[in-house]
Design brief:
Length: 91
């Protein structure tokens, strides 16, 4: 194992599920987990993106969206399947 590598312990069920997901995506468990870690924003990153979006909307519209408008947009995203991400964008 290289100096910058480590191991993680998961249940056998989680390992088997990761193996199935990796196989379906034509990759390895290692690559699957590394992609998840790299591609999934943290709460802080979601908050930063939300603030950038507010600033862009304020620039385009002349004012920032109201809290009510943001709540409606968040509810729409949740209905469209973004419930996991939608709850993270609340700042």
């Amino acid at each position: 194992m290289a100096a910058d590598e480590t191991s993680i312990k998961v249940s056998a069920a989680a390992r088997d599920r990761l193996a199935q997901l990796a196989a379906e995506h034509g990759t390895t468990i290692r690559n699957l987990v590394e992609e998840l870690a790299q591609d999934t924003p943290t709460r802080a990153e979601y908050a930063e993106r939300a603030e950038l979006a507010r600033a862009e909307l304020a620039s385009a519209l002349g004012q920032a969206p109201s809290q009510e408008a943001e709540a409606k947009a968040r509810a729409l995203l949740e209905r469209l399947g973004g419930a996991h991400h939608g709850s993270q964008t609340a700042a």
